[in-house]
Amino acid sequence: VWSHEGIICTGEVYKKAVKTTFAKGAALEDPAGLFNSSLGGNTRRAIDFHEDAEIDDGAFKALILEAAAFNESAG
């Protein structure tokens, strides 16, 4: 679990993917389209990282910073 004034995201390891689930992902902007899992919920959004997948580290960092800022503003 990664947190800053609340949960930012959790990490889970599965056979075919590593999943990061953003606790308040539905409230976040995702201009790079990183969210690719748990898209139907009202609160959470997730990213499944598959083996050998390219990761846009700049977009991922921006999403982490946005989630931290969201937690700060909610408190």
Account of the protein in words:
- A four-stranded antiparallel beta sheet has the order 1-2-3-4.
- With 75 residues, the protein is of the alpha+beta class.
- A hairpin with a 3-residue loop joins strand 1 (2-3) and strand 2.
- The two termini are 19 Å apart.
- 24% of the residues lie in helices and 25% in strands.
- The protein has one helix at residues 57-74, and strands at 2-3, 7-13, 18-22, 45-49.
Strand order across the largest sheet: 1-2-3-4
* Helix-and-strand structural type: alpha+beta
Order of helices and strands: EEEEH
Helix count, per DSSP? 1
Uncertain segments are none
* CA-CA gap between termini: 19 Å
Q: What would you report as the Rg, rounded to the nearest angstrom?
A: 12 Å
Q: What is the helix content?
A: 10-25%
Main β-sheet: number of strands, strand sense, barrel status? 4 strands, antiparallel
Tally of DSSP β-strands: 4
Indicate the proportion of strand residues: 25-35%
Mean pLDDT: 95
> Given the C-alpha coordinates, what overall shape results?
globular
List the helices and strands and how they pair.
Layout: E1 2-3, E2 7-13, E3 18-22, E4 45-49, H1 57-74
Antiparallel strand pairs: 1-2, 2-3, 3-4
In short:
The chain has 1 helix and 4 strands; from the N terminus they run ββββα. The chain is an alpha+beta fold.
Features:
75 residues, alpha+beta, four-stranded antiparallel beta sheet, 1 helix, 24% helix, 25% strand, globular
